[in-house]
């Protein structure tokens, strides 16, 4: 039956492309790309009045196009092509069973006018905006309550033109929380791939309350002193795969989150089953991978491997505080190469930064089963600063087969550990007493799961885009 349906689908596709007709109406555009799902209907932004001159506002063109294409959601899906040009736009939202394809010479430029950014409610798990109380500007590309959304290209660009927003942030002139470049909420089956994201007003990619998310082949660039320009922030998401990304930014390259204090505890939605691999990060003032600081819904089963860190503040950082509640557990990191770091490993139990003063001082976060192995670091100021919470120590920490080369101006004491418990083996320089050495024969002591997460088995296929003269 399935084979027959497939045959029929191919037959229909071929006849609709039939040679006689296409001779009369030549194909204007044709290309192939990789995606988890292909689409039946195609359109170009220019079909809806888009003007790529860098000055004309295209919000209406984007929204008209996508609203029009949303009629195909239950009928094979649709794709919108953004051709070469500079496409100024305010925030627009996407739809289900939909692909946005951005050509490599296309730049989607974020408008500098606040009126082009609708204001939406704060996230329920945060209780307020990150920059201000109350609402937040909707992201440049926004989606909510969707299924099967692909935002891709052959390395097309989203440019948030963030400078103005950063100035407003520094001068306390924001009326609402700054927008992100891409935010997808309450959605399932998301692919964000083969794009370059530059100068985001704030975070770059924010999947939240979503599942089955793939972020692949993304380049993220922002000045290293730009405020809160986090790279990719999976937030209360299940089954996420982040791979082959290159990030240079002013904040954490990947920041794993799940809500803030009493709001996050009440919402109770963890981030779990997260794969991060083949990531290269430069983040002089922040972490390569941060877990927290907002983690009140819990963070569980994170697997990171083949990470390159250059000139970054810390490699893996766990940030939490009394009042956060939640947990960070079953964290596995291996094969990380670090060059020029302040701290290879950092855990902070008194990060502070509360949503408001109504947090529960008895809500103690749990940090347990954290495994780091097979790493080499060079030119490091301090190997590790691991500070747990006195009445809630961080336990089950395992560090094995890690060699840390210290900088000329390194701290005299390379490890400083308080309120933690765990083991180590084959680690240089010698770890603190709270991580007793089990001997080099246990060099592979720290575990890394051998099974695959479901998101690792999702395959991409070759899709085609073609558009005939209207
Ligand atoms: C876009 O969002 C607005 C509300 O913000 C909604 O009315 C509209 O239906 C959405 N369009 C699509 C295509 O999802
Ligand atoms: C989106 O989904 C959330 C969570 O299921 C729900 O609370 C909300 O009402 C939905 N919003 C819309 C516009 O359907
Ligand atoms: C994409 O473009 C960025 C910015 O120009 C560049 O640094 C990166 O190498 C490109 N990626 C690919 C895969 O071509
Ligand atoms: C997208 O990026 C992947 C690597 O993540 C690469 O294999 C693929 O060729 C790229 N596709 C396009 C259309 O650029
Ligand atoms: C080592 O790190 C310092 C900053 O801490 C930097 O100035 C120096 O260039 C680095 N040296 C090497 C060899 O990378
Ligand atoms: C130790 O880690 C290095 C990478 O840093 C790796 O090449 C080596 O195989 C590891 N050794 C063991 C015994 O796992
Ligand atoms: C280690 O950390 C503790 C707690 O932050 C601090 O009080 C102490 O001074 C540190 N010790 C060294 C040697 O840096």
Automatic annotation (TrEMBL):
Residues 1-22 form the signal peptide. Keywords: Cell wall, Glycosidase, Hydrolase, Secreted, Signal. GO terms for molecular function: polygalacturonase activity. It is found in: Secreted, Cell wall. The keyword Secreted applies. Its main location: secreted. GO terms for biological process: carbohydrate metabolic process. Belongs to the glycosyl hydrolase 28 family. PANTHER family: PECTIN LYASE-LIKE SUPERFAMILY PROTEIN, PECTIN LYASE-RELATED. This is Probable polygalacturonase. It comes from Cicer arietinum.
């Amino acid at each position: 039956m399935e084979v027959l349906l497939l045959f029929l689908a191919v037959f229909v596709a071929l006849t609709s492309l039939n040679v006689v007709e296409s001779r009369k109406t030549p194909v204007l555009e044709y290309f192939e790309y990789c995606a988890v799902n292909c689409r039946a209907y195609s359109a170009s932004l220019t079909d809806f009045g888009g003007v790529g001159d860098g000055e004309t506002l295209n919000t209406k063109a984007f929204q008209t196009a996508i609203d029009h294409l949303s009629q195909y959601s239950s009928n094979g899906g649709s794709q919108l092509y953004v051709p070469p040009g500079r496409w100024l736009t305010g925030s627009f939202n996407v739809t289900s069973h939909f692909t946005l394809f951005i050509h490599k010479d296309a730049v989607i430029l974020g408008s500098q006018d606040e009126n082009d950014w609708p204001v939406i409610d704060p996230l329920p798990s945060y209780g307020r905006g990150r920059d201000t109380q109350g609402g937040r500007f909707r992201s440049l590309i926004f989606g909510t309550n969707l299924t099967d959304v692909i935002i891709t290209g052959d390395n097309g660009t989203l440019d948030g033109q963030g400078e103005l927003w950063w100035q407003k942030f520094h001068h306390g002139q924001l009326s609402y929380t700054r927008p992100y470049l891409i935010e997808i909420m309450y959605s399932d089956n998301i692919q964000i791939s083969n794009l370059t994201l530059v100068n985001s007003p704030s975070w770059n990619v924010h999947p939240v309350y979503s599942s089955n998310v793939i972020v692949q082949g993304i380049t993220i660039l922002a000045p290293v002193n730009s405020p809160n320009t986090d790279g990719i922030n999976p937030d209360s998401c299940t089954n996420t795969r982040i791979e082959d990304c290159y990030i240079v930014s002013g904040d954490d390259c990947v920041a794993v989150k799940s809500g803030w204090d009493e709001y996050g505890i009440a919402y109770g939605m963890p981030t779990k089953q997260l794969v991060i691999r083949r990531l290269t990060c430069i983040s002089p003032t922040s972490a390569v991978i941060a877990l927290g600081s907002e983690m009140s819904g819990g963070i569980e089963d994170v697997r990171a491997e083949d990470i390159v860190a250059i000139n970054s503040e810390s490699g893996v950082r766990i940030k939490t505080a009394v009042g956060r509640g939640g947990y960070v557990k079953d964290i596995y990191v291996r094969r990380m190469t670090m060059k020029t770091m302040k701290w290879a490993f950092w855990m902070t139990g008194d990060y502070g930064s509360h949503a408001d003063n109504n947090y529960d001082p008895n809500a103690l976060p749990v940090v347990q089963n954290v495994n780091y192995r097979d790493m080499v670091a060079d030119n490091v100021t301090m190997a590790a600063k691991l500070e747990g919470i006195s009445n809630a120590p961080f336990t089950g920490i395992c560090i094995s087969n890690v060699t840390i080369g210290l900088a000329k101006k390194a701290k005299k004491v390379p490890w400083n550990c308080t309120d933690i418990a765990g083991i180590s083996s084959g680690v240089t320089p010698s770890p603190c007493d709270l991580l007793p050495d089990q001997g080099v024969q246990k060099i592979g002591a720290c575990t890394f799961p051998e099974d695959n997460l479901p998101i690792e088995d999702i395959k991409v296929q070759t899709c085609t885009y073609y558009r005939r003269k209207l």
